[in-house]
Write a structure and sequence with these properties.
Length: 158
């Protein structure tokens, strides 16, 4: 069953009737020790990032909303626990982002480059995914990421 996930709201549609919207307090970037390592492996080699991993409904709801800065070597990964189609939006997200949709095998399914800040337009994953990696806009082009490329992280098998 698809889930609609946004930097602001996480809505889980159960039986097509119940929508749960979680709003959490704005959190600063996590301390360095709480970040996890991730590599996106493209045609020109591996590209390392330190990422916050969102796992709970509250974390999934929080995302990057209201943040105004993220270092170039950082990102946020959303862990959905099961592979499924998802959709995002940018409501209350001020940073322009690239969204990298990743299968449970650690392969890039699709990429949405330069998602428009503060937009409520839905951005679909283009297929079942286990996770979504959000990075600063322009990153996917800079590292030459494309569908089929690999992502190495604790979430994916090696």
């Amino acid at each position: 069953m698809p889930r609609v996930v946004a930097a602001l709201a996480f809505r889980s549609f159960l039986s097509g009737a119940l929508a749960l919207t979680c709003l959490a307090a704005v959190q600063p970037l996590r301390a360095e020790e709480a970040l996890e390592k991730l590599e996106v492996v493209t045609s020109d080699g591996p590209h390392a990032f330190s990422v916050e991993v969102m796992r709970t409904p509250e974390q999934l709801a929080q995302g990057l909303m209201f943040r105004r800065y993220m270092p170039d070597d950082r990102g946020m990964m959303f862990d959905f626990k099961t592979e499924q189609p998802v959709q995002f939006w940018m409501k209350n997200t001020y940073l322009p982002l690239d969204m990298i949709f990743i299968s449970k095998a650690g392969k890039i399914v699709s990429i949405k480059e330069n998602a428009e800040p503060l937009s409520e337009k839905l951005i679909p994953s283009g297929g079942p995914v286990l996770a979504v990696l959000e990075v600063n806009a322009g990153t996917a082009a800079r590292i030459h990421a494309k569908p089929g490329d690999s992502v190495r992280a604790s979430l994916f098998p090696n």
